Amino acid sequence: MRRGTQIGAIALKELLHIWRDKRSMLILFALPALIVSIFGFVLSFEIKEVGVAALIQGNRAEAQRLLARFDASDQFHVVGSVSSPDQIANVLSTERVKMVVVFPESFGSFRRPDSTLHLFIDASYTRVATALESAAKQIVQQYGYEEQPGFVAFSGKESATVNFLYNPELKREAMPIPGLMMIIFLLVSSVMFSISVIRERENGTARLLVLAPLNNARWVVAKAIPYLGIAIFHIGSVWLLSYLLFGVSIAGSSALFFALCLLFSVNAMAFGLLIASWVNRQLEALIICWLFLFIPNLFLSGFIFPLQSMPDLLRGVAAFMPGTAFMEGYRGIVFRGTGFEVNLRYFLLLALPLLRVARLAFWGISTRYAQR
Amino acid sequence: MMIGAVIKKEFLQLFRNRLLFFLLWVAPVVILGLIPPAFENLVRIRAVVVDEDNSPLSRRLLSSLRVSPYFESVSYMPSVVEAEKEMDGARADLAVVIPSGFERQLLPDLKPSLQLLVDGSHTLSASDYLFYLSETLCFVPAKPGFVFEVRMLFNRLFAGKIYFLVSLLVLLITLLGVCFAAISVVNEKEQGILDQLEVTPMHRLVYLAGKLFPFLLVGLSELLLGLGFCLLFYDLHMAGSVGLLLLFSSFYLLSVLGLGLAISILSDNQVQAMYLIVFVLLTLILMSTMFSLLSSMPQWAQQLRYLNPIWFMLEGARAIILKGVEFKGVVVPMAILAVMALVTNGLSVFLLYLKRRR
């Protein structure tokens, strides 16, 4: 037989394996689309309708007017009042209230216009705390400008017109999409491919495949073909859903976007193969995929924490994570609409480690799988 | 008697595999050592400025940006087009454009305005940038107005790390526990051991309990290991009692382990179990408020949190570790977790009986 047909035969065998197990196949095909469509709606990194409680010691009517402004804003939602100062910590430790505003006795009396507003903020989530602080200050300043005659808050401060680029209305759905796609492609591609290889080993069929007249690790390539097809299906379905549900349209070239997604999936599959060449059991591969692919890429890719906020050393590590390259490339192509030259380095960051990882994995497979 | 034998078997299987031993006891420490520095909330904004005014005032504004610790780099661009190009290349997060005639607008009745271009692809960051920019550009108030006094609670050092340390701990014990539980039964089914076990006089409940107990023990010691590591190397301060945390976590672990077991019994082979577990875990993790704010989720998703054991665990762990809540404060979520544990484990028992009929 010619080599091409041999590879085709193993690919066909793998396809039959996938086809035969209907329940697995269903999950495998539907999973990415399902996750992206649900969590595109759910995940959000925006401050919205955060619970605020008030402790009013001064002019009640005036304080209520300011509170009404808090309630009317997108960011806050007034949930109640605090009766005494020693209740503040208690109220904040409930999950509903993240900030307590204290109106002192001097508040609202015109004789003492320099009253001090106290803000108590639950700072267990730092970024949210700073965002709450700035939002609250803005509201109070606005109130001062409009309702207090002669009130000049921070008089030297310039008003500014703010334009948000790439995500003009700060649309909440668009934000988590690249991160979600990254997580999904990474987990699904690596888990599905690595367990399909280890399964051969656990069942003992790897020995038969090694005997096939293909030089050392080519049977692995043949096995990869159906999974590559599934990855392409995933890319298509996820893109279609993000377009239909969230209106994410590709500002740059679609071919480039597709190439980036495919390269990332293949990269994840190579990592899966590397894991498969090292371990003996499917359980071990699953745990390694979660711990050493999912967790680092989740935290170090700029999905949850921007890279700039990390210490230098870790920032260097994070810059080389495949997830980072994918996210940056995605933002570049889809949001900013930049061309190939600008995004070339993300492609390189994905392609170069891919070659090294694949070579290491083939070496591991050809030595370890042939022995037993 | 018999349950002891099953437990012994599970422990033997856990400890004789060297790679699994590494994954259980070394890998979490490696991850806890590597990842948490990423939670550091350093503010390093890369700004580009276009000074079309070039007046003493605009220069003063821009030099205040330069000396600010929040700004990592401030570079001048000749035109807005150039500045936008920098932002396209993701080399800048923020562009400040000072229009010509800016200083003249400072006359009392005119509102001076400057233009800001902000990279909005990360919503929370975008609001951060604006906050620090306004903090930097803000001058001393000329007339008395409202003065703010801001106090941040529950986080003495205002370190962003701590919130996510707890999340990471919960994530680790969840991943390890559920993966082990989800593979345990189906693996024995695939290898034919389950058939052999069925002809022994051992009761099914004993079999399941014998599986549950070692995983629970492993999960709890995992938690202690991680917590000890965090207390030693990061400035985590344990505000509540460790015993309460362990009690709370055991109810949590029982509920998710039961879920893993149910998946394991439901699946015909390991591949199925793995795809299912990836789906279920991803759903539970993303639905819990581990990374996003509860209040910013849509209403239906907020309500669904009451079905999510991870959410209860996160809230409970944060309450106990960060806020030092006593037993009375967490008794309700603990009871709910206990009910969930009953439901998921009851489900696995039910499924196991169902399988036997076939």
Q: Which labels suit this protein?
A:
heterodimer; A: 372 residues; alpha/beta; 4-stranded mixed beta sheet; 5 strands; B: 358 residues; 14 helices; elongated
User: Uncertain runs of chain A with pLDDT below 50, 5 residues or more?
Assistant: 149-160
Report on the biggest sheet of chain A: 4 strands, mixed
What's the N-to-C terminus distance of chain A?
26 Å
| Main sheet specs of chain B | 4 strands, mixed
Strand order of the largest sheet of chain A: 2-1-3-4
Principal-axis shape of chain A equals elongated
Classify the secondary structure makeup of chain A into a structural class: alpha/beta
Major sheet: arrangement of strands of chain B: 2-1-3-4
The Rg value of chain B, from CA coordinates, equals 28 Å
User: Roughly what percent helix of chain A?
Assistant: 55-70%
Uncertain residue segments of chain B: 139-146
Order of helix and strand elements from N to C terminus of chain B:
HHHEHEHEEHEHHHHHHHH
* Count of DSSP-assigned helices of chain A: 13
Number of strands of chain B: 5
**Percent in strands of chain B:** 5-15%
| Overall helicity of chain B | 55-70%
Element pattern of chain A in H and E: HHEHEHEEHEHHHHHHHH
SSE-based structural type of chain B: alpha/beta
Describe the structure.
The complex is a heterodimer of chains A (372) and B (358). Chain A has 372 residues and is of the alpha/beta class. In chain A, 65% of the residues lie in helices and 9% in strands. Chain A contains 13 helices and 5 strands. Chain B has 358 residues and is of the alpha/beta class. Helices cover 63% and strands 9% of the residues of chain B. In chain B, helix 4 (56-67) links the parallel strand 1 (45-51) and strand 2. Chain B is elongated and about 95 Å long. Residues 139-146 of chain B have low confidence and may be disordered. Chains A and B meet through helix 2, strand 4, helix 5, strand 5 and helix 6 of A and helix 2, helix 3, helix 5, strand 4 and helix 6 of B.
